Structure formats: structure tokens, C-alpha cells
Amino acid sequence: MAEKYDVFQAIADPTRRRLLELLAGKELSISTISSHFTMSRTAVTKHLYVLESAGLVVARKIGREKLYCLEAKPLQKLRTWLTFYEQLWDNKLAILKNVVENNHSEE
Amino acid sequence: MAEKYDVFQAIADPTRRRLLELLAGKELSISTISSHFTMSRTAVTKHLYVLESAGLVVARKIGREKLYCLEAKPLQKLRTWLTFYEQLWDNKLAILKNVVENNHSEE
DNA sequence: ACTATATACAACCAAATGGTTGCATGTCAA
DNA sequence: TTGACATGCAACCATTTGGTTGTATATAGT
């Protein structure tokens, strides 16, 4: 598999979002996690790898089990990214910005 | 090309995030937009299609030009999604939740 | 020691993704 | 009407993605 995954990429897949939801506040083994999905355990493992490499989950090995849990911090990056666009929810500000930038020298 | 794109999918690609940034508060033609990228105009058009089908940009045709601008509203969906995980930034709450759910019957 | 269970990993596959080039079409301007 | 410009669109291509199966290895329990 590949090297490094992005937070944006990691959350793009619906299955991976379900995984994050499932792991919120819980610590679950791969088998337990897989039991919530119809796809194979291997497929789930791959998704977990993507999430892990994006820093969104962390794992520790206990005996023969590998326990995963959510790590929400990297989502702050997304939060920051969003903040910029929140100003434009309803684009009143955007229109104003445009007016200021392009029309302020008229009349 | 395919049918419908998701907001999560749409913002997964760095090029498309650059496009959104470029179109914030501005209305630009495909050619003008393309001039900001090294890839072909066709490639840019495809990215714009993805964004459009996710509702993140809107276009109107003026003469021979097609003008695109940002439509931030669909990002609210992402904002809502994020809110759930914000509680877990630092996982104090998560730990507490775990304690309450699993250990409250002890002693 | 034997068997169950939990995971790891390689190999393979179809479809989606992100890009290209070439050509057709519509529109503006002289 | 003749270019030049702006876009549309089909065909093609390599790589990535999301999934599979099969086999190997490590650990737990009896």
C-alpha cells in the first residue's frame, strides 16, 4: 500500500467515516470492528490503515488483538480550513468583498 | 463522466480545494481559472464538474464564456459532521464517556 | 500438543480517478 | 466571412482505490 494519507482524503470515503463514528470514545479490535461491516476483514484493515496514516486513529496491540481508537485532533486541520468558508455561508460578505475590491473607485 | 459527487469527495482533491479558494468571492471564466494551473483546460473543467455536481460552485454562461463562482452552503454539511468530533478534540470527554458506559456499575 | 482465534500480508482484479490529445462547435470582432 | 477565442466532448491512458481470496504466523485456551 501507499505511504501517507491526507485528512481530506481519509474522510472522503463513507466507510471510513463510519469507522470513525464507530471508534468514537471506544477501543475496538479489528474483528469486532469488522463485524459491523459486510465487507471482508482485510478490506476493513486497509481502511484502518488509511485512517491511521492520516493520524485519525491510533492502535495498540494487546496479545493477539489490535485495538483501534479514534484520534480526533487531526480534524482540527479541517476545522481551520472550513473557517475560511464559513464567512461565505450566505454570500452577503462575498458580494460586499467583491464590491469593495472592484468598484470602490467608481464615482 | 459520472453522476453525483459528494461534498466530502469533492474537497478531497487538493486541486479542487485550490479551485474553491480561487473562486471565493469571484466569478471567473474557465480560461481564466485554467491560467492558474499547469494542467490542461480539460482537466480543470473536469474538476469544476465535480465541484458543480457537489453544489460547491455554480456557473452561468455569458456569450462564449462560462463563469464559475463559489457556493459555500454545501460546506455546512461538513461543518455539522465536524461538530460531533469537536467534542473529542482532546479526548477528556471520550474517556469520561467510556467510564460512564462501561464502568458505572462497578462498586 | 492441538485447535481456535486474531491478525498480517501477498497477489490479484474491476472500476474510478486524474490526466492527456484531438477535433467539433459556438461566438465575438474586424 | 474569416479568424481567433472559449468551450464541449470523445477517446484514450496510467495509476489509485476499494475490494477479493488464499496462505502464513502468532497467541490463547483446553
Report low-confidence residues of chain A grouped into runs of 5 or more.
none
Assembly annotation: homodimer
**Number of helical runs of chain A?**
6
Strands across the major sheet of chain A, in which order? 1-3-2
User: How much helix, percentage-wise, in residues of chain A?
Assistant: 40-55%
Distance between the termini of chain A: 61 Å
From the coordinates shown, what is the CATH architecture of the largest domain in chain A? Orthogonal Bundle
Give the ordered list of helices and strands of chain A. Answer: HHEHHEEHH
Q: How many extended strands of chain A? A: 3
Short synopsis of the structure:
The structure is a homodimer of 107-residue chains. Helices cover 52% and strands 14% of the residues of chain A.
List keywords for this structure.
2 domains, alpha+beta, 14% strand, DNA-binding, Arc Repressor Mutant, subunit A, 6 helices
Structure description:
The structure is a homodimer of 107-residue chains. The first copy, chain A, has 107 residues and is of the alpha+beta class. Helix content of chain A is 52%, strand content 14%. Chain A folds into two domains: 7-70, Winged helix-like DNA-binding domain superfamily/Winged helix DNA-binding domain (Arc Repressor Mutant, subunit A, Orthogonal Bundle); 74-107, no CATH class. The first copy, chain A, has helices at residues 7-10, 14-23, 30-34, 41-53, 75-86, 92-103; strands at residues 27-29, 57-62, 65-70. The first copy, chain A, has a three-stranded antiparallel beta sheet. In chain A, a hairpin with a 2-residue loop joins strand 2 and strand 3 (65-70). In chain A, helix 2 packs across helix 4. The longest helix of chain A is centred in the middle third of the chain and has 13 residues, at 41-53. The mean pLDDT of chain A is 88.
